Automatic annotation (TrEMBL):
Keywords: Calcium, Repeat. It comes from Nonomuraea maritima. GO terms for molecular function: calcium ion binding. It comes from the Bacteria. SUPFAM superfamilies: EF-hand. Residues 3-38, 40-75 form the EF-hand domain. This is Calcium-binding protein CML. It holds the Pfam family EF-hand_7. InterPro entries: Centrin_CML-like, EF-hand-dom_pair, EF_Hand_1_Ca_BS, EF_hand_dom. Coiled coil: none annotated. PANTHER family: CALCIUM BINDING PROTEIN (PTHR23050).
Amino acid sequence: MSSAHEAAEAEFKRFDADGDGLLTADEIRAANDALGGQGAAESEIEAFIAAADSDGDGMIELAEFVALVGHGRHEKA
């Protein structure tokens, strides 16, 4: 397992406030709010959710999160 993959899994677990294995929009917003002024804009959060939610259920599973974040595709160029 790559270190980027492991880091993505650790971030997912940190964001998954209720431990159900799914990230909701509210959990992502709460994690973002904890960053204070360094967090993402609402439009960036919505874009992240849309990009990560490959099955369209409105929640992000670990595999979806790792597929997007674990390879650095979420980072701005």
